């Protein structure tokens, strides 16, 4: 288009926008909310990915493998032997330990050999060659540490139970570069040994090796040590599933935002039919008119996208805080900082915002292009002669639902999400014709109630004219119902599992070192303690079997397991005496295990072979678990240590917990006593925090849908100005016209609400049983809640009623016939 | 695409044997013949529903005949695409309606610039110059909604002439105006069309207005009766 023409078109459009600030604000706000959701979630995802990369690099550095003890201890002497034998392999010894400050503060400490670190981890190895770092003193075991505190800061530290030691900060860790820096201390292995007391071993040795080198190294290891590949993919996959949920919701918000732009443009196009007709008369071609409307959409898109990007920046910190908190608690530490939005996120949000606006403009633009200049002469402005929906809707809807059912059978997260999307799309395509058909059949006649009867007669036409907004409303209501069910079902499943699985009244544990047998006796003998159960947990981070728990199986423990596979009556008897194992559902999915399969696990000399006899529900986020009887573990692993205790109190002694807590007060070991009630409360708090943002985005989608309905109802009433004049001429009062609008809109809301409920139920089932199962590997049970369905239907009616209020009031105030 | 009858001896518009019906009922136009000469001002009168507006629409290329031939400035709208008909209108026709149909979000000057921009002609102060010639310069920067009906229609006349069309079609341009404003608008329309060398076909019910035209045609039962142009059929 020529510049002069475009300039005049832009000028005319901008003036028109300025004359309709309400509609303009709705469109810009709707689009802005969607773009802001995409920006803020995108920015938060980028930060989390960055944190994961740092977390991964910090945990493993360049390590491809790690050597750990599967029984007994990994000693410094063994490390030295390996270092001499494999001089050309980068080996880095690591000891992790918990330290406590004099003021009661806790630290996670990483004891390393800086000399070896320089080839393994950048964040610690960098100090080996730093000019102002006292390397010789550090390597010599001087009381120096790296911490997120100014150089020279003095700290008093102890390993719980051991004497305090004064140390000085030799270099400051950058909290933005080092994950979890505010509670991390890095020290030399020699200083760690001093703090721990003599004979302290290593947690692991990080190794950078290719396949051949790894095979040679594995051959050379003593029986109680094992070489395993470093793999953090599972952790990342879990976190990504959570992030994907939020991204999907942010895109949903954007989709609804595009609906609003669509409605607004439709409104704008209808209101200027005379302008378009006369422009066509002046020689404006249909193509030029289409491009004019698209140009207007771009202007709206620019405004909405710019506002959305700005809002996104403001929201990014909030969203990032929420997501980072959740990921930190569930998966790995995320360091947050001021939102830094990557160019990719800017670009995606801009393209989606502008693209959404342009796509939304296509139908109104085509409608404008169809306006004939002859309309200038017939005087029938803004009237639609016919009602109807495209015929392809029904078959397309059936096809989408069929495709969704086929995709849901595949065992992938992405196909599950695609199935959810197709179910929603398919149902909407089926529900609109259903609303169209039902609208005219509502049991209200003109004779019974003239206004309601007339409103009923107009419903099919209204459905066809507001179908995009109706679709948005149905989608929003279904999302509210589906997501609410998903969260509540998830919460109920987790709460039920916590209730059942935490059978003891209190637990003592939480540190990575075994419990002192004297402490165990002290607990057992405390007044009011009726029984104790010993647990031995071994962690293999990054492995499919991330934890092995050995336990005793008194009746309460037996009752705490929910089996997903048939469990024989004598199951617990053979479990205690045979080499049998129970596996968590997550592990069973990861390794494809089922009851009767064999599981091979590392132990001292040879691998241990266990028969899988049961699959149990487990909603822990730390990966796959294996449970064996304590006797089996003792026999096969030759290890009798205890890492945590379940404590049962005498119900007749209500002060038993306090008595035990008092008795354990002042001890120096790092284990903590926690009541089961507190443990459940903390777990559910983490859960609620996890889904706080999901709830927020769900409501955002609902609000945006409401704005869409409002805009559609406004546009509809504008279309019907001449009809309103005829009705006034027939004797309807302004108040009658207002009532008519309210009745019609409420009936529309009722139809949308009722038709959205089956989709809500389908989404609830799909999100709970399909998506979450694929994402987390957990079987969850849908907890159907009639209240949520009633709320969804009510939400649709209320949204439609409220959206009709402004035009109804406007009719009510209009005294001119 | 656009013919140039000036100096070619060809009429500005010619319709021969034109039949037009909208439904299966009797045709609105039944074998209508009409010739308009360049720069000629013609009044078209007739009862409501006699087909006056249909005739205008045929000439403007907004509808096509069921039978017969229409040629305007050498252009045959019936055989052209929608796009070409739009281009034909923007280059050759000016239109004035009973409703003023100014674009409400463009100023008076911009309303005049719009047809120029559509026709790809440079604005270059032409709009303001024309407004000054017509005595409307004080309105140049005002929006149409701030003008009286008479003022709006004078601006509409200016807009119809700004791109120097060959033919101006006016459909009851004074229907919404009081007597004094109607008089001013007709003066302007006739004088400005003449000085621009444009033909004028004007639908009216007023004998006073039709008396100001070169000739008057009456449409009755789908055919024209009245004063033929010199040496030509009606």
What does this structure look like?
The complex is a heterodimer of chains A (817) and B (234). The radius of gyration of chain A is 33 Å and the shape is elongated. In chain A, helix 14 runs antiparallel to helix 15 and helix 24 runs parallel beside helix 27. Chain A has 817 residues and is of the alpha+beta class. About 1% of the residues of chain A have low confidence. In chain A, strand 11 and strand 12 form a beta hairpin. Helices cover 59% and strands 13% of the residues of chain A. Chain B has 234 residues and is α/β, with parallel strands linked by helices. Helix content of chain B is 32%, strand content 23%. In chain B, the strands form 2 sheets. Chain B has a 6-stranded mixed sheet with strand order 5-6-7-3-8-9, with helices on both faces. Chain B is globular, with a radius of gyration of 17 Å. The N terminus and C terminus of chain B are likely disordered.
């Amino acid at each position: 288009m020529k510049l002069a023409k475009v300039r005049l078109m832009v000028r005319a459009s901008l003036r028109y926008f300025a004359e309709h600030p309400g509609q303009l604000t709705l469109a810009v706000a709707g689009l802005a909310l969607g773009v802001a959701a995409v920006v803020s979630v995108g920015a938060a995802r980028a930060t989390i990915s960055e944190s994961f990369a740092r977390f991964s690099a910090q945990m493993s550095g360049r390590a491809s493998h790690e050597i750990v003890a599967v029984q007994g201890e990994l000693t410094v002497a063994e490390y030295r032997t390996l270092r001499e034998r494999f001089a050309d392999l980068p080996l880095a010894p690591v000891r992790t330990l918990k330290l406590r400050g004099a003021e009661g503060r806790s630290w996670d400490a990483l004891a390393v050999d800086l000399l070896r670190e320089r080839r393994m981890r950048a964040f610690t190895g960098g100090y080996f060659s730093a000019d102002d770092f006292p390397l010789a003193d550090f390597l010599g075991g001087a009381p120096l540490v790296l911490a997120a505190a100014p150089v020279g800061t003095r700290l008093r530290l102890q390993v719980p139970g051991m004497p305090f030691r004064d140390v000085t900060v030799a270099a400051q860790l950058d909290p933005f570069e080092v994950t979890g820096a505010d509670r991390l201390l890095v020290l030399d292995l020699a200083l760690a040994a001093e703090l721990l007391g003599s004979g302290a071993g290593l947690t692991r040795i990080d190794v950078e090796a290719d396949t051949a080198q790894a095979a040679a190294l594995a051959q050379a290891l003593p029986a109680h040590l094992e070489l395993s590949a470093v793999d953090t993919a599972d952790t990342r996959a879990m976190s990504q599933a959570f992030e994907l949920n939020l991204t999907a919701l942010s895109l949903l918000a954007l989709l609804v935002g595009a609906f609003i732009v669509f409605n607004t443009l439709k409104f704008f196009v209808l209101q200027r039919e005379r302008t378009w007709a006369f422009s066509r008369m002046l020689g404006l071609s249909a193509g030029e008119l289409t491009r004019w409307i698209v140009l207007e959409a771009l202007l709206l898109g620019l405004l909405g996208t710019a506002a959305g990007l700005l809002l996104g920046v403001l929201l990014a910190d909030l969203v990032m805080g929420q997501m980072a908190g959740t990921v930190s608690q569930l998966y790995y530490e995320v360091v947050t900082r001021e939102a830094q939005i990557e160019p990719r996120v800017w670009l995606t949000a801009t393209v989606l915002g502008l693209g959404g606006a342009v796509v939304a403009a296509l139908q109104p633009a085509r409608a404008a292009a169809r306006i004939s200049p002859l309309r200038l002469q017939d005087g029938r402005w803004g009237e639609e002669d016919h009602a109807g929906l495209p015929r392809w809707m029904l078959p397309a809807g059936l096809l989408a639902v069929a495709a969704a059912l086929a995709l849901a059978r595949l065992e992938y997260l992405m196909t599950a999400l695609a199935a959810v999307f197709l179910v929603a799309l398919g149902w909407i395509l089926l529900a609109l014709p259903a609303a169209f058909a039902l609208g005219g059949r509502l049991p209200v006649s003109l004779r019974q109630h003239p206004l309601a009867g007339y409103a009923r007669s107009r419903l099919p036409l209204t459905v066809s004219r507001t179908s995009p907004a109706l679709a948005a409303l149905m989608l929003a209501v279904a999302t509210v119902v589906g997501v609410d069910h998903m969260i509540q079902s998830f919460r109920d499943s987790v709460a039920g599992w916590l209730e059942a699985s935490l059978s003891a009244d209190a637990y003592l544990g939480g540190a990575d070192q075994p419990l002192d047998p004297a402490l165990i006796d002290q607990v057992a003998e405390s007044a009011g303690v009726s029984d104790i159960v010993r647990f031995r947990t071994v962690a293999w981070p990054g492995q499919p079997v991330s934890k092995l728990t050995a336990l005793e199986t008194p009746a309460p423990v037996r009752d705490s397991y929910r089996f997903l596979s048939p469990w024989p009556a004598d199951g617990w008897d053979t479990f205690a005496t045979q080499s049998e194992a129970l596996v968590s559902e997550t592990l069973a999915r990861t390794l494809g295990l089922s009851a009767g399969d064999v599981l091979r696990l590392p132990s001292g000399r040879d691998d241990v072979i266990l028969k899988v006899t049961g699959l149990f529900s487990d909603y822990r986020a730390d990966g796959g678990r294996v449970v064996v009887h304590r006797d089996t573990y003792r026999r096969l692993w030759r290890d009798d240590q205890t890492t945590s205790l379940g404590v049962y109190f005498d119900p007749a002694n209500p002060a038993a917990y306090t008595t035990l807590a008092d008795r354990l007060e002042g001890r120096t070991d790092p284990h903590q006593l926690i009541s089961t009630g507190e443990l459940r409360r903390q777990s559910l708090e983490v859960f609620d925090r996890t889904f706080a943002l999901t709830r927020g985005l769900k409501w955002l989608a609902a609000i945006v849908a409401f704005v869409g309905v409002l805009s559609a109802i406004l546009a509809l009433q504008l279309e019907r100005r001449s009809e309103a004049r005829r009705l006034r001429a027939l004797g309807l009062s302004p108040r009658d016209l207002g009532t008519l609008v309210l009745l019609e809109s409420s009936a529309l809301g009722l139809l949308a609400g009722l038709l959205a409920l089956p989709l809500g139920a389908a989404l609830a089932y799909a999100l709970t049983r399909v998506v979450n199962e694929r994402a987390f590997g957990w079987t969850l049970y849908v907890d159907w809640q009639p209240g949520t369905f009633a709320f969804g239907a009510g939400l649709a009616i209320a949204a439609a009623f409220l959206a009709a209020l402004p035009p109804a009031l406007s009719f009510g105030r209009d005294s001119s016939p | 695409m656009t013919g140039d009858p000036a100096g070619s001896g060809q009429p500005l518009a010619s319709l021969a044997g034109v039949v037009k019906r909208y439904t299966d009922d009797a045709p609105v136009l039944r074998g209508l013949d009409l010739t308009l000469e360049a720069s000629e001002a013609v009044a078209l009168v007739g009862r409501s529903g006699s087909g006056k507006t249909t005739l205008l629409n045929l000439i403007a290329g907004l509808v096509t005949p069921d039978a017969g031939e229409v040629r305007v400035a050498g252009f045959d709208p019936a055989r052209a695409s929608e796009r070409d008909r739009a281009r034909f209108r923007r280059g050759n026709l000016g239109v004035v309606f009973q409703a003023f149909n100014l674009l409400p979000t463009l100023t008076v000057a911009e309303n005049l610039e719009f047809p120029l921009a559509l026709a790809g002609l440079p604005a270059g102060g032409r709009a303001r110059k024309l407004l000054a010639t017509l005595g409307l310069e004080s309105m140049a920067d005002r929006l149409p909604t701030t003008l009286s009906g008479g003022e709006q229609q004078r601006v509409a006349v200016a807009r119809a002439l700004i791109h120097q069309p060959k033919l101006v079609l006016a459909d009851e341009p004074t229907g919404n105006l009081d007597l004094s404003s109607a008089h001013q608008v007709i003066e302007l329309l006739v004088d400005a069309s003449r000085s621009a060398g444009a033909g004028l076909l004007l639908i009216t019910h007023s004998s006073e207005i039709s008396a100001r035209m070169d000739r008057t045609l009456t449409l009755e039962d789908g055919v024209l009766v009245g004063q033929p142009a010199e040496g030509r059929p009606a």
